[in-house]
Amino acid sequence: MGSMKEKAEGAKDKTYETAQSAKEKTTGTAQTAKEKAAETAEAAKQKAGETAQAAREKAEGAKGKSYETAQSAKEKTTGTAQTAKEKAAETAEAAKQKAGETAQTAREKAEAGKEMTSGVLQKTGEQVKQMAQGAAEAVKNTLGMGKDGNDVDHDTPTPTSPYKQQGQGYNKD
Hints:
Distance between the termini: 56 Å
Oligomer: single chain
């Protein structure tokens, strides 16, 4: 029975380790997503700066074309920033889903371990009960009190019986 407890404790420890590992992976994934978003935003910012500079230079050369160029730069920057924002959101969502899946897997493994332990304990209890019932039946049969149809008739003399027949009953010598 101590072995079952050790197995249950082992399953519990394994579940805890799995959950810790999932937590660490989730934290690492979230940190990576945050860093990637910061890099993307910085690249977008730098690109926007470069585009704005090009727009200023073109504006000096041609006033009529400057408005269009600035507008184009603005749209490009907005699009790049929006893309970076969406990518960061997608990455964060993917990390969240992965963490949820990992946690679900850990819960399922813990439940399976619990069910397995319960089943083994129930089976062991049934086996012990059956063994006790078998032993009780064996003792009853040995004493002639069994229910298997081999009950001993104590009123009928046997060759080794200390009683002998006298009249209608049996009496001791």
